[in-house]
Design brief:
By secondary structure, this protein is an alpha+beta fold. It has ten helices and eleven strands. The strands form three sheets. Strands 6-5-4-3-2-1-9 form a seven-stranded antiparallel beta sheet. Strands 7-8 form a two-stranded antiparallel sheet.
Length: 430
Amino acid sequence: MVGLRRNYLAMSFFRSIAPAFSLLVIGSGGVLADESEDLRFADLEAPEHDYWNRPLQDPFTLLKDDLEQGRLGLDTSSEKAYLESLLKALEIPASTQMLVYSTTSLQLSRISPRTPRALYFKDDLYLGYVQGGRIEIVSIDPELGGIFYIFDIPVQGKRPVAERSERCMRCHADEDTHEVPGINIKSVIPGPTGGSLESYRRGLTGHGIPLADRFGGWYVTGADDIKPHWGNLIGRFTPEGIVTTPLPPGREFDWNAFPVATSDMLAHLLHEHQGGFVNRFTQAHYRLRTALADGKGRLLPDDRRRIETLVEELVRYLLFADEAPLSAPLAGDSRLKEDFRANRRVDGAGNSLRDFDLETHLLRNRCSYMIYSPLFQHLPAGFKKLLYTRIGRALALSPSDPDFSYLPNSEKARIRSILRETLPDLPPGW
């Protein structure tokens, strides 16, 4: 592995750095992002990041030895049985299953409309399964972002060896994620064998992407009234351009090959939101480390401007400011809704950030439940205080912030109550 040629430099740029952020005053409007800004913050081998050598804290790495030594007690009687037992051991709900038939994966030769790739996820762990192929893992380290592993499904009593994959970085740490290790979600028009004829939403992730640009190359169930989108379609070139035809889920493959018979729209919406969160907050970690390294522990003037912009962008994402609306109410798979709500953190009135709306938007209380994730909670204390302060102003009833006027006062009050009662590190008087 290229990065392993470097000696590990035990440097922590996040120790005692609250003063570096405490002098920042964030204006209500923020500063427009400089799209021409270079990507110097994304040098994964820079000493302040040392991506390949730093000790890892992601959930899969912490279980990797148990997996390889057979201590997880996984069922190897069949591929499906192994997948189901692995999901259970990793505490990933099978109900999050999404099926993708475009060949947008390392295992493209095994993927087609007849043999779709299955994806499953929880807040900080993502798993891919390809029939007759390998298991793919994206595990979110709270400071480094995505850590990628790939391994064979065991046969004849052999134990798996989970290889930390550099090849996954070709798509998961490129321009689509601003060169940091993150989540890459494609939307394409596949041809008959899964190859891409056209692609959409290039370089974009998150709940702000219009549904009309999503789901190309994916099977989508439970969303007959949610249109338009590119799911459940296949295309071909004609003299008049690309012509698409319907590809109903289950027509080309057997649902029995998978743990559940869904690729539910609700799973897709949650996955999209989380992908956007992971990418944005992973970028924040790398930007902050780079800025502090450049200033030898202090923020230089240009970096102060970028931090102001970053706070505005992250708070808008946390509070769903640019969420694409649903075109019709969504029922959502009942098992998925139950699994998702199992981790609710509630206030005294029983409200949580995991309560669904599904009439016009995803969540009833529009503040991301990912605020509880290690990726957020491991941000530098000073920077996190800036985010909390800006969130507090956005949720204020008086004076009302015009940038967040889409939130009714009743919803703002619920969100404030939930955060006050479930986040122990809010600033005094928040």
